[in-house]
Structures are given as C-alpha cells and as structure tokens.
C-alpha cells in the first residue's frame, strides 16, 4: 500500500496578498474586496489578506487598510497580514481588530534577504524577535515564513542546517507556525521530504507549513512529498497567482484549486469546496483580463465528463 | 531519510508522435525532421517518432514514412512507432529497417476504447495479439500502452484489477514493455504508487512504464510516486506538447525538460542533457509559433541565477 498520508490538511489562501502583490496593473480596492469575499465563502478557513509594506515600494498593496475594513468575512476564518518589519506592524495595528495572525519573514540566504528587505539576516531576525513579542502581546498569533528555504537564485543551495537554525530561532521567539518557502522554485520532492521530516521532528508543538511555488512544475510533487513527511499545513494561491515569479514569466505559487484537487483525490480532506475555488479563480481571471495558469481552472475536477476525446491516442 | 529512489530512469521522448499529432496546423515534414534530429542529439535514447494511423483521421501524421526515411538518428537510439491495429503494422513494415520498437495500445475502459479506435476492448486485444506476434517475428520489440489506466472521462474510475488484467494479457502475448497511460489526467500519486507497485510485482521481467499527462498539474507528482514504487521507465514530450488535451485547452503530456529537471535534482540520472532538451523545446516553440506550456522552457534549470527578484516576498 502507498505511504500513509494524513487524513486532512489545512490550506491558507495567499492570493489576496502574494497573488495580487505581483500584478503589474493596480487592482481596484472594490475588486479585491469582492474576490476576497468570494474566497471567504468556499470553505477556506485561512486567508492571507494584505501586506503592510511601504506603498512606494509595492503600490499594489497600498490599500491594505481599506481592504481589511471593507471585507465581509465569516467568523470561522482566520485572516493573516504580512509585515516586513516592526514599522509594518505599527501600521497593521491601526486596524488591529480586523485580522487574527501576523506573518513575519526572512530569507535563509544573505543575498536574497538583502535584495528582498535590504538587511542582513541577523538584523531581520533581531527585528522579528521584537515583532513576534508585540504580536503575542496584542493577543494575535505570530507566524513566520523562511524564504529561499530550498535554494537561493543568487547563492544556490542553502544548507538544510542553516534553514532549520532559522526555524528554531523563530520558534524560540514564540512563532506558533513556521513556513518553508520555495521562493524561486528550487525545491525537489526528496529534499522536501527530508527537511519537513527534520523540522517536524525538531520543533514539536510548532505548526510546520509548506509554501511551494510551481516555477519548474514540481509544486504538487513537493506538496505530496511534504504530506508524506507529515506536513498538514499548506499555502497556495487561487488561479496560481503571484509568488514572486523569478525568472520573469515563470509561474509562482501553487494553485489552490490544483492542490485541493490532488488532496481530495487522495482522500486528504481540506474542508474546501473545489468548484467554488475554481469559480473564484475564474472571477480573478475576469478581473485581471488574462488567462491564469492553474490547471483545474481549465480542466475542472476529475469528475468532469467532457463530450469528446481525440482519436488514436493514449 | 527520504524514500529510496532508483539511481536512474529511462525517458522515451514521445513529442514527435504524441505531441505533433495534436497540433491543429500541419507541421512540414522538414520541420519535423529537423526537430527530431535535434532531439536525437540531446542524450535521449528512445524516441517515439510516428504513428501509422489512417491519414484521413489524423492528417498530421500522414507523412510518417517520409519522416522515418528522412531523419538522421545516432546508432544508440531506439525509435518507436505506434500502430492502432494490424493494418497499421502493415504500413509500418514498409519501412521496417527504420525503427526498432512498435507500440500497441488499448483503453482500460470500453467507452474510451470505442471512441478512440471504434472497437470493443476484446476486439482490440485480439488484434493486438496478432500484431504482437508479427512484431516479434520481424525481430522488433513489442510494447504496449494502456490508455485510461487511471480513470476514464466517460466512465470515471477504472478498477485497478481491470487495468492489471489487460497488462497481463499484453505480457502473455510477449510485450516487453507495458505502459500505463493517464489519458485525461485523472491519476493521483497515491493510486499511482499502488498500481505501479502491483504491476511491477505481478509482471516480473516486463518493463513497466509511466505515461502521465499534466492535465490537472499532478504530472510530476505522479512521476515521483511512480519512482517511489520502483518504476524506472517514463514517457514525456518536449515542450509539454500533445497528449490528447481533454478537456480542450488542457495541457497534455508531462514535459520532458520538467521531468528531467526533477529527476536530476533528486539525483536520478537520465543521461539526457537538460539544456539541450530545453533548446529543442524552444525550437518547437519557434516552429509552432506559440508559447508552449512547459515550465523549464521559461524558468530554466535550477542552477540559473537570474538578476532580479521582487521585493517584500517569500
């Protein structure tokens, strides 16, 4: 029999932050709110909704407060906001009552951290320690994601020990959840299995999360490997939006609908309504005015029975 | 440590048959020959080059004889032709000295077999028995692929016992290799692991091959699961061309360059030069005049170090 898989997994939808952030054309606040409200009615129970970054650096997310104040979110959903530093947290706390979790981040490689947030890793982590304590004291849930956890486009392979060391630092300052981000799609399933096995073993009581990109088509293979290692927490983006596409033109985050389809087919429950997520991805496609790259947005769930097939094929 | 994987795997490039077959515009014979000659210099040692089907049904492959006579193929490469029936074999044998293997096929579901080749499964298998014996008596290698092995778009799930029964029938008539085709992208990794484990166990001495489509984005996840089950033989298509896209607009075959990239990253050797395959896929892109859907054609191998990355992301 196949390797035993967890009976269920949790999905955090990151499209409203990670997806929208990478769109070159500004999406109207009203469109963002409508799409988020639609996502919030698909059975998803976690949504990363905004990032409190400098508006001159990421103009697309300058309306974070308006979005947070404008959405209509069912009670059971936990909303997450991303903050790059302590100043970001200051801004987020102006609408403290509108979200539940705060995500920090740092890169596992110095060069990427420098280019991403213009700081050394140690400086970021010193700031993250302050941020984590403030989040906790506000009664919010501190979470973290380690970028370039599977490799850096500038430095190449990142030692597993280094990535795990950063994870332990986040755990030590009270992060309830630590994600491993495959920022530019350098993860492969064998490595994923090993690092998730190690992280789950070394950080008992901490939620270990997977944030994969589909840059080189391995996103779902990595998700399968993470599941095999016992990971039950995943981040993905409806329509396969966003995910810091590097190199330019690449796909980014794994698509929520493709991930859920695979999980459901394998009997791993998510509580999410797949057709409803596909509908939301199609709505995003309409808003953005272009074809998105998720697979199930075209092919649908596997129980679709199309009318035709080609001949002479297999 | 991660589940033990095979040290190496074999890839059959099926783009010149399975890929070209699904192109709506006729590709010139000269362009086909140039692309095949390029593929034959990438380290690939197996290429499925043509199908001997009725020209009125698949006009794209009407030049099979001209292609076979026109290509310049290094000695170490085994060329495969596909035949839908005994009449197809008659036509193939007119250029008997130009190829090495012949692939038969049948669907695991009655409805798909009827729509694909207009016959019942039993009729197809009776013909395949005659074809297999003739292939063997010609000193060629008989191979087979079972379509809809992981599900049928008309009938839904196909019982594993039924698919394995057909595989045993192919083995009984002398097939040296039997592939399991995920015709419309209904396979998931847990099922893949189980059926490949069973097939390898029940058919010792037969090469068990995987023919996956990326219809719902799970192609490489399924390849990883097949590897874990001990499968070392894979079919794929450069550029992610072809693969009977159902529903219309879906992607088909897994991309050779994406598969090889994942295998090499995991330390599974293929003998294939990845940048050379990417070059061939880009040449196909030029010939076809449109962007293809493979990932590595855009992102390149993981050792690429692009100049830029977005800010404030993970």
UniProtKB/TrEMBL annotation, chains A, B:
SUPFAM superfamilies in the record: Aldolase (SSF51569)
UniProt entry keywords in alphabetical sequence: Lyase, Metal-binding
Pfam families: HMGL-like
Top-rank taxon: Bacteria
GO terms classed as biological process: ketone body biosynthetic process; L-leucine catabolic process
InterPro entries to which the protein is assigned, alphabetical: Aldolase_TIM, HMGL, PYR_CT
Keyword Lyase: yes
Molecular functions (GO terms): hydroxymethylglutaryl-CoA lyase activity; metal ion binding
Domain Pyruvate carboxyltransferase per the UniProt entry, residue ranges: 9-278
Protein's name in the database: Isopropylmalate/homocitrate/citramalate synthases
Lineage start: Bacteria, Bacillati, Actinomycetota, Actinomycetes, Mycobacteriales
């Amino acid at each position: 029999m196949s390797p035993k898989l967890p009976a269920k997994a949790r999905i955090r939808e990151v499209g409203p932050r990670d997806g929208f952030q990478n769109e070159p054309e500004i999406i109207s606040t009203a469109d963002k709110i409508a799409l988020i409200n639609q996502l919030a009615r698909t059975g998803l129970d976690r949504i990363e909704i905004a990032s409190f970054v400098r508006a001159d650096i990421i103009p697309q997310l300058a309306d974070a407060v308006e979005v947070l104040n404008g959405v209509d979110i069912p009670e059971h959903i936990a909303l997450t906001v991303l903050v790059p530093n302590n100043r970001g947290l200051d801004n987020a706390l102006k609408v403290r009552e509108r979200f539940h979790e705060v995500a920090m981040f740092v890169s596992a490689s110095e060069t990427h951290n420098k280019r991403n947030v213009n700081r050394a890793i140690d400086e970021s982590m010193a700031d993250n320690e302050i941020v984590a304590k403030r989040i906790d004291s506000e009664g919010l849930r501190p979470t973290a994601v380690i970028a370039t956890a599977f490799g850096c486009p500038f430095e190449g392979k990142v030692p597993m020990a280094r990535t795990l060391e950063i994870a332990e630092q986040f755990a030590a300052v009270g992060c309830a959840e630590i994600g491993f981000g495959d920022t530019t799609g350098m993860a492969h399933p064998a490595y994923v299995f090993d690092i998730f096995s190690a992280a789950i073993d070394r950080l008992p009581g901490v939620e270990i999360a997977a944030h994969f990109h589909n840059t080189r088509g391995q996103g779902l293979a990595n998700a399968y490997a993470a599941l095999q290692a016992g990971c039950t927490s995943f981040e993905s983006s409806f329509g396969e939006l966003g995910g810091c596409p590097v190199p330019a033109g690449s796909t980014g985050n794994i698509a929520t609908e493709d991930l859920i389809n695979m999980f459901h087919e394998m009997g791993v429950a998510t509580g999410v309504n797949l057709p409803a997520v596909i509908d939301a991805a199609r709505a995003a496609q309409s808003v953005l005015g272009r074809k998105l790259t998720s697979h199930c947005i075209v092919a649908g769930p596997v129980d679709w029975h199309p009318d035709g097939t080609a001949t002479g094929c297999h």
